[in-house]
Amino acid sequence: MKVHGKPTRTLWLEPDGQAVGIIDQTRLPHAFVTARLTTLDEAAHAIRAMQVRGAPLIGATAAYGVWLALRADASDAALARALAVLGDTRPTAINLHWALDEMRRLLAPLAVSERVAAAQRRAAELCDEDVAINRALGGHGLKLLEAAWERKGKRGRLEVLTHCNAGWLATVDWGTALSPVYLAHDAGLPVHVWVDETRPRNQGASLTAWELGQHGVPHTVIADNVGGHLMQHGRVDLCIVGTDRTTAHGDVANKIGTYLKALAARDNGVPFYVALPSPTIDWSLRDGVKEIPIEQRDGTEVSDITGRLSSGDIATVRVTPQGSPTANYGFDVTPARLVTALITERGVCAASEEGLRSLFPERARRHA
Fold it and tell me: Which residue windows are coiled coil (predicted)?
């Protein structure tokens, strides 16, 4: 995708070949700042502090984090430490552990002298694979948007509601939930996106709105509790969200508040789609509500908020009473029964074990 008209990815190997470049997403939307990652600890911090975030991008960053670690020490002990340190950064997104497993399987059997080059090569491949997967996913999702536009009689705007950020900032490029939106916009469909602010970190207001604006996609930022009202009044044609972990039965874990949007969509007959690259599927889990680990983050993300003052300065202020306790659950689980369909790089399927097996039979057999 593009930033100020320039093609940009969220993650890249720096020209000197000595570091990994990232967009520091904690500085958006008020400043576009890039950073260099040169060590394992810097890569782990970038994931933990959410300088990079979104399940696919976390996985890609972790893969490069292994390479950065092995540049300093490619021994068995160093490899094990890198995998452990990166694996402990975020608990919910399965892509992190999928990418680390990919690196482990490749690197563990190799001679120490071969590991650094192999790690760099595989990390780059995983990034390119992520881009291809999300572009293919977008093509399948585009067909759903075109069908919705036909059902609407090609009148007015095609109204899409999304929650959190599942655009290109959450991946290496293209995005998951927003990939079909970008393709629809580029194809000339008059698509408009309702962007949930997505408290407490405001990834919708800060990130989704920013990247949609960069691409010229019409959008409107709304408070998180507005979606149900819009659906009741026929102002949402479909919902598309991403997911950080999907069970073998089709339950999905996404940013906190997604479950409530799915309930509102079901009550109002609005299609509720979930877009996911296949590495997001956790074939070992069956019951998402009981089995998916839900990250609990620092309560200051709830009690404090950061924004730009009228002076232009960036400031963080407290919005809750001093002494009031906070709870900060990062994700919730939407049961498969509330999901209209899953959009993947291989096509669209029912949110069920049968649906996922029909598209990924080889992976399902591996975990049977």
Answer: none
Give the domain ranges of the chain. Answer: 2-129, 136-366
Find the Cα–Cα–Cα–Cα dihedral 46, 6, 216, 253, rounded to 10°. Answer: -30
Of 126, 142, 163, 94, nearest to 348 (Cα)? 142
Strands 314-318 and 304-308: antiparallel
Catalytic hit among 173, 196, 244, 332? 244
26-42 pLDDT, tens digit each: 999 999 999 999 999 99
Q: Residue 20: left (phi > 0), alpha (psi -120 to 50), or beta?
A: beta
Q: What CATH number matches the domain at 136-366, 3.30.470.10, 3.40.50.1820, 3.40.50.280, 3.40.50.10470?
A: 3.40.50.10470
Q: Is 244 a catalytic residue?
A: yes
Q: How far apart are alpha carbons 10 and 184 in whole angstroms? A: 22
The end-to-end CA distance of the chain, in Å, is: 38
Q: Which fold has domain 2-129?
A: Four Helix Bundle (Hemerythrin (Met), subunit A) (1.20.120)
Q: Is 323 annotated as a binding residue?
A: no
**53 labelled binding-site residue:** yes
Q: Is the pTM here over 0.90, yes or no? A: yes
